[in-house]
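Subject: Sanity check before I submit

Could someone independently write out the structure tokens for this chain? I want to compare against mine line by line before I put it in a report. The sequence has 157 residues.
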Amino acid sequence: MKSLRSLMFVILLLPIFAAAQSMDSLKGFASSNAVKGAADALGGSLPGLLQSQLGLSEDQAAGGLGSMLSLANEKLSASEYDKLAGMIPGAEQYLETAKSLGALSEPLKNMSDLTNALSSLGISPDVISKFVPMVTGYLGKSGGAEVQNLLTKAFGT
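---
Independent answer below. Compare away.
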């Protein structure tokens, strides 16, 4: 079942790979973690995946991730948050970016606050509806069941 899901995900990500500049950028594609392989093809970053798939700017992707991390920080225990944030290289920088862009004037308490923060970054409602599932899908596939449980606790997904 996991192989089938990975295959289906890879098929959905084929347009990303078609846009790749060289075969070297596809390094990691054959790994058992299809989502991580897709991010590797885009320079190894979750923001790169968000930019490519959702048409976001670098600031929107980074600020959006920072906003999600802010909500997770409020909803999870310190050790749970550390586990989740540890899966995102540069997590603290994303929080700082969200703050510097004005998305985090105060701690986020719920999904409505997160939606408002993403909207303040100029992200449309249609893209917002895809943003959170894309991030949670990426992290859930990368981190397994334990991380998926943390994502459910933080974002209700």
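---
OP: Matches mine. For the report I'm noting this point. The mean pLDDT is 79.
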